[in-house]
Specification:
Blueprint lengths: L31 E2 L4 H8 L11 H13 L20 E6 L5 H17 L2 E6 L4 H13 L4 E4 L7 H9 L4 E4 L6 E3 L4 E5 L3 H15 L5 E6 L4 H15 L5 E7 L5 H15 L4 E5 L2 H14 L8 E6 L3 H9 L3 E5 L3 H16 L23 E2 L2 E2 L5 H9 L4
Parallel strand pairs: 2-3, 2-4, 4-5, 5-7, 8-9, 8-10, 10-11, 11-12
Antiparallel strand pairs: 1-9, 6-7, 13-14
């Protein structure tokens, strides 16, 4: 049941997000503003400073962080050694949402790396909903593989992951938990992702730098997902730490209903906030992409009225950045590379070794560096990661 994927698949969601979730509910669930703490309430009701733009340490730190994260991506930050490749293994990659180009790229990376190391691989596509994830994991376990790679929320299938663990099947997560690294509580040998807090902090710093310290920001997320919660809360805290910025709202809306909810949210924000403001999204495709039609229909200027800062990337987000339309940047992850890393981590698990501990440095895509950062609609570091992994595995390059 091997499934071939192509990069031409339409993107509807990222970070375990899916419009397929809409089919399970007749009535859309509205977005929910998250109650503010007293400190956050004060920040949201105190006008931004009307004096000259801040040149404080907070602003300078933001400028420096963005500059550092837009640099070259040709350096290898992965492991320099690995156990001898285990022989004759069969692994399964579960793509959390078959229509997401990043999910596709994750499993394509797994497929390519498995072929290089000499293993058999099968991909099982899910539809971005908890029910489809449970079905996919059940199918994967039934195939009796030696290892499984998932890109879905591990907490939603924890019982099934315990079954895999009991069957001595190691599981690698990609974006499956709130932090990178081992998660024995979720029966994950390790979880691959950026540090989500660092990613969200950089996104807020991009707005602070772009506004020279006067950013007003909204965070949009789905608090059902651990990694999305971490991102939104961190971006909010960074804005609140900027003395001349203003925290507006942190809004949670069901990811599976973002297509129907986001246009109305964008329209309401434009009405509610007459001055320039920024929106940070935990997922470009999941939340920003569905809201863009409302901006275009409202003839909202491409710049000077709203600034979008995303994470994880999408083809549409990259087009907006390239054209200078609404979006100032996004912080994607190296999806295909992470597929190769997942295979490397499985090999370590098969050999009884600890995880590599590799967490890739942040890279923000802006109009200035997009030409050298995107390949076939996804972020691809310039480093030859396939050759690097082949080298440490001792297989032909």
């Amino acid at each position: 049941m091997h499934t071939h994927r192509t990069a031409s698949l339409v993107v509807f969601a990222l970070v375990a997000l899916a419009t397929a979730g809409c089919s399970s509910a007749a009535t859309p669930t509205p977005a929910t503003p998250v109650p503010a703490t007293p400190a956050a309430t004060a920040a949201a009701t105190t006008p931004a400073a009307s004096a000259a733009p801040s040149t404080s340490a907070v602003v300078q730190a933001a400028i420096d962080a963005v500059k550092s994260a837009t640099g070259p991506t040709d350096q290898w930050f992965g492991p320099t050694s690995a156990p001898t490749p285990a022989q004759g293994k069969f692994i399964v990659c579960i793509n959390y949402f078959a229509q997401d180009v990043v999910g596709v790229a994750w499993c394509e990376g797994v497929e390519g790396a498995a072929a290089k190391i000499g293993w058999k691989e099968t991909t099982i596509p899910a539809q971005g909903t908890p029910d489809s994830w449970r079905s996919a994991v059940q199918t994967a376990i039934a195939l009796k593989p030696d290892g499984i790679v998932i890109s879905l929320d591990a907490g939603s299938v924890k019982g099934l992951l315990k079954e895999a663990s009991d069957a001595k099947i190691p599981v690698i997560g990609i974006h499956s938990a709130g932090t990178p690294g081992p998660h024995p509580d979720l029966f994950l040998y390790t979880n691959l992702s950026y540090d989500p807090a660092a990613q969200a902090k950089l996104a807020a710093q991009a707005a602070i730098a772009d506004s020279n310290g006067t950013a007003q920001m909204i965070q949009i997320t789905d608090l059902q997902y651990a990694i999305a919660t971490t991102k939104a809360n961190t971006a909010k805290a960074e804005i609140e730490a900027c003395p001349t910025c203003k925290q507006l709202e942190l809004v949670s809306t069901p990811a599976g209903q973002a297509n129907s909810n986001m246009p109305g949210l964008f329209t309401s924000w434009l009405t509610k906030y007459p001055d320039m403001f920024y929106v940070f999204s935990v997922s470009d495709a999941g939340f920003l992409d569905p809201g863009i039609p409302a901006l275009r229909l409202g003839n909202v200027p491409f710049s000077g009225r709203i600034g979008l800062v995303g994470s994880d990337g999408s083809p549409s987000a990259y087009e907006r950045i390239k054209a200078g339309e609404y979006q100032i940047g996004t912080i994607p992850e190296p999806a295909a590379l992470q597929g190769w890393q997942a295979v490397d981590e499985l090999n370590r698990a098969f050999n009884g070794a600890p995880p590599s501990g590799t967490v890739w440095p942040l890279h923000i895509i802006t109009k200035d560096n997009i030409a050298t950062s995107i390949v076939d609609g996804v972020y691809a570091p310039q480093v030859d990661y396939a050759s690097q992994y082949a080298k440490i595995w001792g297989v032909g390059q």
